[in-house]
Specification:
Helix 6 (152-171) links the parallel strand 5 and strand 6 (174-180). The chain has 2 domains: 5-183 and 223-247, 3-Layer(aba) Sandwich (Rossmann fold), CATH 3.40.50; 189-221 and 251-285 and 306-324, UDP-galactose 4-epimerase, domain 1 (Alpha-Beta Complex), CATH 3.90.25. The protein is built from 11 helices and 13 strands. The chain is an alpha/beta fold. The strands form 4 sheets. A 7-stranded parallel beta sheet has the order 3-2-1-4-5-6-11, sandwiched between helices. The structure holds NADP nicotinamide-adenine-dinucleotide phosphate and ligand G4F.
Length: 326
């Protein structure tokens, strides 16, 4: 008999899959919101990869449709709600700014409303992001650093972040935000730069491609592993008092150096294969992100456990295995 029920939006995404795995290990009943796409097939590849496809319950619904969320609350009665669903690719937010606002911004408020009406005693996690710091106002970003969003995605996330704070202060909801810096894994979407690089390296290594086209490789990010970061989400909801926390490694690296780690691990010379293509430049760039996770370490006892090198090696191995048919 499950002790608690968790409801996860974005359950089919990278973090949703790892969080489901963690919660199932802890004995939770795990329910997920599954938006309809062009066919009734749901993207279950990540849950399948982790071997938990049949262990979660999926409910038809969409963050932009409050009615669908209300129905899901009535059916699954969540104790903990994790809002991971989003249009999460920064580049796409310039070509689909309204959709990004509706799903990534207003979607969070739809979920908070469903909770306020039907499950005010539940606990809520909002997937906030280091992108909200954008044009950084301090060299190391903490919970007190002012925000300066640089994309429609970041602006939508900032709205969702402040609405989470507002519902906590207005209605006394147990609502917390994790301001998570970039986190990656073999389950990362192929369009994000780490996975694009590890997939590209595997293709070149296997003779399936000869070049990898990238944009601004001088950008710097604070990269951790998604498996470590979902543990922080759960820890936030186990606290007596809701709050906001930065989750980061405290180390920043250029895209160029991350790329070099991947190529060298595969025994390849990146200079021979990487081509800079302005098509991947962004209208406004976030040049550097570097998080200060001291509060999470002190209050939650959380710290990142996987180094960038270990993570990139795991991702290259997984892409070699996938593309090599193993
Ligand atoms: P992801 O892999 O892109 O997953 C996004 C999820 O949202 C998918 O399951 C997707 O469903 C779902 N979704 C999209 N539109 C939806 C809608 N209208 N209604 C309901 N669900 C919808 O993202 P992730 O990397 O796991 O990130 C999880 C969350 O953390 C996101 O909110 C992201 O913005 C945020 N975040 C991520 C990072 C990071 O570095 N990964 C850092 C900070 C914050 P489909 O599979 O059907 O498309
Ligand atoms: O991997 P990225 O697309 O991630 P980005 O934009 O930092 O956003 C990710 O992390 C955020 C947390 O800070 C999340 F909130 C968000 O949902 C998402 O998960 O790009 C990283 C950097 C950027 O500076 C980009 O300009 O890599 C640079 N880059 C250089 N060449 C590239 C490429 N990014 C992509 N996606 N593709 C390239 O070819």
């Amino acid at each position: 008999m499950a002790t608690k029920t968790a409801l996860i939006t974005g359950i089919t995404g990278q973090d949703g899959a790892y969080l489901s795995q963690l919660l199932l290990e802890k004995g939770y009943r795990v329910c997920g919101v599954s938006p309809r796409r062009s066919t009734s097939d749901v993207n279950l590849s990540r849950l399948e990869w982790l071997g938990i496809r049949d262990d979660v319950e999926l409910f038809d619904g969409d963050l932009s449709d409050l009615g669908s969320l209300i129905r899901i609350f009535e059916a699954c009665h969540p104790d903990e709600i994790y809002n991971l669903g989003a249009q999460s690719f920064v580049q796409t937010s310039w070509s689909q700014p309204v959709l990004t606002g509706q799903v990534t911004g207003i979607g969070a408020v739809n979920l908070l409303e469903a909770m306020r009406i039907l499950a005010p005693e539940a606990r809520f996690y909002q997937a906030s992001t280091s992108e909200m710091y954008g044009l950084i106002q301090e060299p190391r970003q903490s919970e007190t650093t002012p925000f300066y969003p640089r994309s429609p995605y970041a602006a939508a996330k900032l709205y969702a972040h402040w609405m989470t704070v507002n519902y906590r202060e207005s209605f006394g909801l147990h609502a917390s935000s994790g301001i998570l810096f970039n986190h990656e894994s073999p389950l990362r979407g192929l369009e994000f730069v780490t996975r694009k690089v590890t997939d590209g390296v595997a293709r070149i290594k296997l003779g399936l491609a000869s070049e990898l086209r990238l944009g601004n490789i001088d950008a710097k990010r604070d990269w951790g592993h998604a498996r470590d970061y979902v543990r922080a989400m759960w820890l936030m909801l186990q606290q007596d008092v809701p709050d906001d926390y930065v989750i980061a490694t405290g180390v920043t690296t250029t895209v160029r150096d991350m790329c070099r780690i991947a190529f060298e691990y595969a025994g390849l010379d990146m200079e021979r294969h990487v081509v800079i293509d302005p098509k991947f430049y962004r209208p406004a760039e976030v040049d550097v992100l570097l998080g200060n996770p001291d509060k999470a370490q002190a209050a939650l006892g959380w710290q990142a456990e996987t180094s960038l090198e270990e993570m990139i090696r795991e991702m290259v191995d997984a892409d070699l295995a996938r593309l090599g048919g193993r």
